[in-house]
Amino acid sequence: MRLTISFIFALLTISTASSAEVDESALSLKVDRAFPSLRLRRPVVITNAGDGSNRMFFATQQGVIHVIPNDSSVEKTATFLDIESQVVYNDKENEEGMLGLAFHPAYEQNGEFFVYYTTTDAPHTSVVSRFRVSKHNPNQADPESEEELLRVKQPYWNHNGGALAFGPGGYLYIALGDGGSGNDPHGNGQNLETLLASILRINVDRKDEGKNYSIPKDNPFVRRERARSEIWAYGLRNVWGMSFDRETGQLWAADVGQKLWEEINLITRGGNYGWNLREAKHKFGNNGSEASDELIDPIWEYHHEIGKSITGGSVYRGKKLPDLVGAYLYADYVSGRVWALRYDQAQKKVVANHSIPAKSMPICAFGEDEQGEIYFTDSFGFIYQLAPSAN
């Protein structure tokens, strides 16, 4: 048993390439407090409005969205939206709550933004709603403007997913977990008749009959019987962190593992990412499969000896840290480690997974400002950024 454990440990950070091919050196960066005077309650989303205002928005899991000018000296936030009274959050069942926030690409013109939250009006039920900014105050939303787009019943309190992101074509992508419990007991991962365990793609600018959104005609399962047409990709356990590379348009998603493996995926149209036949690249359960032409491998995985709950981030496209451009930043919530991963699209493999020196912290979200600079938060409510190391 000792030899087996030692062998596994030697392979912990190996993914789609051997350790000799992957640069795992530490970067000369440090972690700084971005807004030293601020502390929020469980901020799980960081984003910007893309309207030229350079403001930053933070959604807390309890149901409040804060807004600030992008100024490190800021001492307090303004409350952009407070729907805490209609959001379920419980510290002991802490995968429900407000989990997603995305601003419409034309927000400067239409004032629309979208929120994913667990509603108080039905047990274990996720809602995606459209809201609009106040006509009188740009730092305040109109809570009465809510228009519900989707309502998804969840069998359990965990694995809600919740990430929202607009893609290059202006469509809204929505990440939904497998519904919770363990082992995917309802088989949602491989079931196209449910929205669970999927990434959805919808058009929020048009409405199909009976819906407050429409389904793009080029969605992969539009013409398939016994399949939900909203689905863009499936076979995902619990995506925690989903973002588009603002330069290439590639959609990245970090999927939280169960027993042994965490994974990073490049999401493609109609892709099946294997859950619950596989966990990352490894056979899962009695009906599992290690190799299949129908299942898409993650580009990176790591063992639970390294960390036990991945937090997905973004590809860095800012200007302050030129050596980091093109690297995907991510972290592990349990081990508190932070990395910068480089994927070579031409070679179809990871070529570097640099560690970033940082004190162990439970990082729960990454996000970008309008310039592409990346920030991250921990569960204690502090906001961080990376800076060049003095060494």
CATH level-4 homologous superfamily: TolB, C-terminal domain
Radius of gyration: 20 Å
Taken in chain order, the helices and strands follow as HEEEEEEHEEEEEEEEEEEEEEEEEEEE
Helix content: under 10%
Helix/strand/pairing category: mainly beta
Number of strands: 26
Number of separate domains: 1
- The parts where pLDDT drops under 50 for at least 5 residues are 1-18
Give the overall form: globular
Distance from first to last alpha carbon: 42 Å
What does this protein structure show overall?
Helix content is 3%, strand content 37%. The chain is mostly beta strands. It has one domain: Neuraminidase (6 Propeller), CATH 2.120.10. The strands form 7 sheets. A 4-stranded antiparallel sheet has the order 1-26-25-24, with no helix packed on it. Strands 2-3-4-5 form a 4-stranded antiparallel sheet, with no helix packed on it. The relative contact order is 0.15.
What does this entry show, briefly?
The chain contains two helices and 26 strands. It has 391 residues and is mostly beta strands.
List the helices and strands and how they pair.
Elements lengths: L1 H9 L18 E5 L9 E5 L7 E6 L3 E6 L8 E5 L15 E6 L3 H4 L1 E7 L6 E9 L7 E13 L10 E3 L5 E4 L22 E5 L28 E4 L4 E6 L6 E5 L5 E7 L10 E2 L2 E2 L16 E4 L6 E2 L16 E5 L5 E7 L4 E8 L6 E6 L5 E5 L4 E6 L3
Antiparallel strand pairs: 1-26, 2-3, 3-4, 4-5, 6-7, 7-8, 8-9, 10-11, 11-12, 12-13, 14-15, 15-16, 16-19, 17-18, 20-21, 21-22, 22-23, 24-25, 25-26
Features:
391 residues; mainly beta; Neuraminidase; four-stranded antiparallel beta sheet; 2 helices; 26 strands; 37% strand; disordered N terminus
